[in-house]
Amino acid sequence: MSTKEGLPLINLAAKQSSSTISSTQNALRQFGAFRFVAPQLTQNRLQRVFQNARGFFQLPIELKLRTKSYSAFDTELIRGKRAVPKESIYFFRKAEGDYHPPPSELQDSVETLHQEWTNFRSQLFSTLSIILDSTEPLEGTPTLDFESLGVNFYDSDKLDCDRAYFNPAHMDGGTLTILARATEAHDGLEIADLTTTEKLDSEGIGLDASFISVPAISGEVIVLAGTRLQRIFGKDKVRACVHRVCNPVHMSNNSAVKERLSLAIFCAPPFK
Ligand SMILES: O=C(O)CCC(=O)C(=O)O
Ligand SMILES: [Fe+2]
């Protein structure tokens, strides 16, 4: 199944047809993912964030380490053990200590993008309630849910050839992750077809399941269900998406891509 057939594309501003509802219900069980149309999130504002982030990631490491919510190459762990060969900077997170703010152009461009995202948030969650036939609207709990945003930078020059993944197979812990990428086309992002395995943990699924490649398409973003959404609705309705990013040097006919930037909004349902 191609990604286009496999992952339904939703227009949040429209009334959902019964065929969109049923294909999205299926996609949430099979992949834990779908897409929505959001040119406002993928065009100029996003490119400005990536341009500023590229400048930030090129700064000397001593400067980056002093920056609030920066995580250096190979410092984040998946399942508490596998280091992820990426650098990231997170926004809207609390940080203890004496850190510098990120460069102001980067901070401003992230805030502008995030402001645009807030126009989509309640539409996305109310559409999700309709799709999942939920009688209660999804509402965030201030103690459990908070929203943050991460910009990730992957550089295949920093990766030994034996590491096939920029980001090993994992699930995100929150409700929904909105993912946008800097490069259009196949940039290594893959999601598991959860109907191809009996395994339930992300490591087992990573070894056992079939994965499909999810190209980045202009004007659209991908939504990944997190473990919290799976817990709220139950595994029969929603599976947490298991996703990974291949090192582009391991991808056939795309070996020219060496650098990869992505942006994830770890979003929370609106509060009452
Ligand atoms: O870089 C990507 O496309 C995926 C990022 C991701 O999985 C994450 O930040 O949790
Ligand atoms: Fe993730």
Automatic annotation (TrEMBL):
SUPFAM superfamilies reported in the protein's UniProt record: Clavaminate synthase-like (SSF51197)
Residue stretches making up the Fe2OG dioxygenase domain: 145-269
Domain of life: Eukaryota
Entries under PROSITE patterns matching the protein: FE2OG_OXY (PS51471)
GO molecular function, one term: metal ion binding
Keyword entries, A-Z: Iron, Metal-binding, Oxidoreductase
Similarity comment: Belongs to the iron/ascorbate-dependent oxidoreductase family.
InterPro entries: DIOX_N, IPNS-like_FE2OG_OXY, IPNS-like_sf, Iron_ascorbate_oxido_reductase, Oxoglu/Fe-dep_dioxygenase_dom
Descriptive protein name: Fe2OG dioxygenase domain-containing protein
GO biological process terms, semicolon-separated: small molecule biosynthetic process
